[in-house]
Amino acid sequence: MREWTHAEHVSAAATEIARMADVLRGREMSVPVLTCPGWDLARLVTHTGGVHRWAATMVADLAERRYDRRGMDMGLPADASGYPAWLGAGAALLSEALLSQDPQAPMWTWGGERRVRFWSRRMLHETLVHRMDAELAVGIPTLVPEDVAADGVEEFLDILPYALWNPGVAELRGGGETISLQADTGAGWVITLDPDRFHHRRSLQPGSVTVRTATSADLLQVVWGRRSVDDYAVEGDAGLLGWWRELARI
């Protein structure tokens, strides 16, 4: 697996925003988004574009606290037909903010890394997952570069312990059981459940339960709950895997 720089994450995030905007252009915004129950494309776009602008504003200010996104003027068009262009315009705003700051500069984040560079990686994968949601909603193939998808799986595992708004995360403990996520492309992770926490490492070893997929993009959809594990090979304790997937949500 490659190691990413802040600038590479910024560039990849801008690419994902453009791809998502392209998927949405000319679509009816009332189309349901089945992977985000209760949402339609309009809600998906306003959420994603709003998060970009919220993060960009905090990065520009090197915010020491969380800003209230609900109280911010996002400049949303009155006509929903303008939503894809509005989403796309957020790429420049986000990139400018992220590249204007030292990636090591301290600021508020909700993850473990309290620095600017948290947001370049987070915005890449926030957008990527919602781009996949849009593609699934309109019925077009979802393609993700292997290096981006692999980083996305690892990012999910890195930030999951900090998703404290989900009480299920606190229950992800055990007695040494392991969950192995393996892609045929050579990317792999093993999650270990300890009595006081869980941790993960890159590894190609099987676990108490092992999920095997063709690509990291498949694994990305599995960990984010966008695909059923029934589509893939599962070896070992399927009950452990079901328990993990039920609780491991962001």
UniProtKB/TrEMBL annotation:
<dbReference type="InterPro" id="IPR017517">
    <property type="entry name" value="Maleyloyr_isom"/>
</dbReference>
<dbReference type="Pfam" id="PF11716">
    <property type="entry name" value="MDMPI_N"/>
</dbReference>
<dbReference type="Pfam" id="PF07398">
    <property type="entry name" value="MDMPI_C"/>
</dbReference>
<dbReference type="GO" id="GO:0016853">
    <property type="term" value="F:isomerase activity"/>
</dbReference>
<feature type="domain" description="MDMPI C-terminal">
    <location>
        <begin position="147"/>
        <end position="241"/>
    </location>
</feature>
<dbReference type="InterPro" id="IPR024344">
    <property type="entry name" value="MDMPI_metal-binding"/>
</dbReference>
<keyword id="KW-0413">Isomerase</keyword>
<feature type="domain" description="Mycothiol-dependent maleylpyruvate isomerase metal-binding">
    <location>
        <begin position="11"/>
        <end position="134"/>
    </location>
</feature>
<protein>
    <submittedName>
        <fullName>Maleylpyruvate isomerase family mycothiol-dependent enzyme</fullName>
    </submittedName>
</protein>
<dbReference type="InterPro" id="IPR010872">
    <property type="entry name" value="MDMPI_C-term_domain"/>
</dbReference>
